[in-house]
Amino acid sequence: MDDDETRLFEDPPPEAYERVTNPGRFRVLHDSARELVERLAREFAVERHDVTEPDPQGRESTVPGVRLTPHSPEAGPLTVVFTAFPGLEVRMGRWYEFLLPACGCDACDEDPQDLIEEFLTNVKALTDGRFRERLGHGRTPWLEFSFAGEDWQEGERQRLTRAEATAARRLGPADTLHWAPWPRRD
């Protein structure tokens, strides 16, 4: 193995985990999300609400966001929050939330184009009616998500912390949600 190949498998230096050299590279996430939200609002029968929410990354007190709620109650809602980092907090359906980038530090080295693709893929699963959520209240509460319709193997499972489990219980009993496709505008 040569020196370049060896470096590929080495852990980043510890200081890289605390450093964000160019956060502006993630600004393209805002641009892509705005374009997608506008397209979705034109193509689908949804109510659009511009919202102001607490910045999930705590850099600003509040940040703008957009909530799209399909006219069909069987179709899952979408909320996109434009974080000050810059990045996105995305909420789909009842329980699924994710941050893009998840971290943003130099060590994680997240590629903005990969993040855009992840965002578009997840939202397409929601609008196509392939997104599923499942909440379990067993000894160890959990949430499970699938982006491939009925196939739970293609999803992800998250164990909940005690605080998350308490919050999930407030949302109601264990449930499986099969979100319907978003209705198109006439």
Beta strand %: 25-35%
**Helical region count?**
4
**Mean pLDDT reading:** 83
- Shape annotation: globular
What can be said about the biggest beta sheet? 5 strands, antiparallel
Computed over alpha carbons, the radius of gyration is 18 Å
Report the helical percentage: 25-40%
Number of strands: 9
What's the quick description here?
The protein is an alpha+beta fold. The chain is 26% helix and 28% strand.
Can you put this structure into words, describing what you see?
It contains 4 helices and 9 strands, in the order ααβββββαβββαβ. The protein has helices at 3-8, 27-43, 112-128, 162-170; strands at residues 46-54, 62-70, 78-83, 87-92, 96-100, 132-136, 142-146, 156-159, 175-178. With 186 residues, it is an alpha+beta fold. The relative contact order is 0.16. The termini are far apart. The model has no long low-confidence stretch (mean pLDDT 83). The strands form 2 sheets. It has a 5-stranded antiparallel sheet with strand order 1-2-3-4-5, with helices on one face. It folds into 2 domains: 3-128, no CATH class; 132-178, no CATH class.
